[in-house]
Amino acid sequence: MKVAEVVEKLGLEVYSGSNGLDREIRGGYTSDLLSDVMGHADSGDVWVTLQTHKNVIAIASLKELSAIVLVKNYKPETDTIAQSNEEGIPILGTSKETFEITGLLYKLING
Amino acid sequence: MNYYQADMHIHTVLSPCGDLSMSPINIVDCAERIGLKVIGITDHNSTLHGPVTRKLAEKRGIMVVFGAEVTTKEEVHCLCLFPEENQRVQFQNFLENNLSEIKNDPDLFGHQVVVDENEEILDEIEPLLISALKVSIDEVEQKVHQIGGLFIPAHIDRPKYSLTSQLGFIPKDLKYDALEISRSTSIEKALNDYSYIKKLRFIKSSDAHNIDQIGTANTQLKMESVCWNEVRMAILGIEGREVIVS
Fold it and tell me: A25 Cβ partners below 8 Å, 6+ apart?
């Protein structure tokens, strides 16, 4: 499933990295510890987090993640947006809490 | 140059996790007993025990550096150190303006008390000091440097509340003055683990929460004399001054 399709179906905001909306999502990972994501997320995952620091993009790039979803209306920092645009990894946003958006993503991707 | 024993990261009874024995007078007594010449008083998100500890320590020829161990929005612990009272007050205001609204539950987390030099309780702090501030690590760094302090990410080797656990790796443009490693690791391991970073400058501190832990990181400052400017140069590793981590 393409990132753009998930954006549309779940009504997500696109904060940055819109040049990466055609990336393919194959699974998901939910965590706020970047060290954990670095160790355990899989390539093609969409990553749900509340962390907004620009290291998020570096790790998404390293792990070849498809997109990042920020929960509870968290907004990326300015330099995080710049990195996201540069790498072409979309940062998406939702007003929903982590549990809820993770559940919705799970259903959509595996459903 | 001379060598002075130092421990830049000590909690007091004000930190909810700080042992009840960690009163300013007990810390100073211990520092004197084990020969520390410079100590940092760094409670979680508070600088309030700095002045009373300095007053007690001055009489024993021990320098107290004001500071706090800040929890940033990302839940990264960072030591923030300051020389003078006016800087401490500026930073204390910044902390109080950015604390979360979560209240401490002493049964769960421990008491957060401010005491005087005779261990009389003056105040009990209501907001939970171990929760995260509302500001990012970059905002904390900028504030510390704007005031004229030193910014040192704490215990970066630890798997909890550290720069590396929370943010995965050391951001290459983070403007830290040094990096702190915990007493349970070695400088050799740190140099190897973080070799991807250009600016490798370490301090090692005890992060003492009880009396027995004070000074256990066994760190020395190589400098001319004991004053803030010398301590600052040692931490920055400039003009022949340095932090000797064993």
Answer: A1, A2, A3, A6, A44, A45, A46, A66, A67, A109
